[in-house]
């Protein structure tokens, strides 16, 4: 069987080729609805291998691909570049994928040409339509990400930076790291074990820090000389269970970690140009139908108090003249985690229901738009202070669930009583699922930021592989 597709990309073929060769390309291209992870990647030259884990560590299989057919013909601005990956072992009976980058008048064309054979022997013909659909879904997703990532980098036209990132292994940090590396930037991960520090390969360094011990390897951080810093580390809000210990861990992981990092950055010479430090939509508390731009007052309760203290913890960096942005992140939407991970499987079974009366506002935002907004904050020299990270149009919980179900071709007509939500979800449900935060990204919009997926139905269709075509944003 054969699958071939083409994508117009607004960058030269050489840059399209380099993007595929850089660290992070696999992470950016992996469909979020599939449980896949990259175990090993040697490069894309002939003989290099990649090992991809399908499933979990305990349940799954390894897909081993070897590269061949490497050509740098486009680097002189005229010919084509390409590389191929051939399955050595894995889920298909055979797989041969040729990635070809060709110059065009508008930039370049990416050609994906896949020859494959399904397993199952005599049943392969029966399974062929399903296999074709899954491959079509995968490449529709890959093409949107490829086009949008490269367009963002081209529009930014920024020289290569060195960006230090805390929480680089988390949901947001791993996506941001892959995106930055794809743009030719070097990432310095702040890691919690000394043995994990040092060089990890091209564009990938690591520096030791330990919040509990109050330690940062300042000499290593000086040698890394970050131009910018993105601080995402902190105890996940899912750890909130109502106990004093959980509250203390959440409070201290955000305030102590931010203070430790800010003090270290202030001691560097030169200091980084910018610190983008995570905060959360919880800053505003539950406010009903009130529209909440960055100028809105904080709410009341534990989470607003945490967010206020969290943002205040950057004081030493700000006093050292480092431009500081507090990214108040809304409900991140992706099947890999955040808001969508627990909801998508339930609605896919036709069991979707909205919490309470369904009138609360959720400040949702697609994962890639979080990444693009953080990148924007790194480069916009006039952007300081709080920055709301939410889609331009927050939606009511009822509308979110019904749109999610519609994208999955399932019904959603059930109201889940608030008492049930509290009983099943506990403290987390009370502080997140039942909160109404009508947060709007006023600063980003005023600064000319363009959301890749501002509409909920398009965002969910993209994230779940449900778009009918390769429609680009």
TrEMBL record:
Residues 163-380 form the NAD-dependent epimerase/dehydratase domain. Gene3D superfamilies: 3.30.530.20, NAD(P)-binding Rossmann-like Domain. Residues 416-463 form the DUF1731 domain. It holds the Pfam family Polyketide_cyc. InterPro entries: COQ10_START, DUF1731, Epimerase_deHydtase, NAD(P)-bd_dom_sf, SDR39U1, START-like_dom_sf. NCBIfam families: yfcH. This is TIGR01777 family protein. It comes from Rubrivirga marina. Residues 9-139 form the Coenzyme Q-binding protein COQ10 START domain. Belongs to the ribosome association toxin RatA family. Belongs to the NAD(P)-dependent epimerase/dehydratase family. SDR39U1 subfamily.
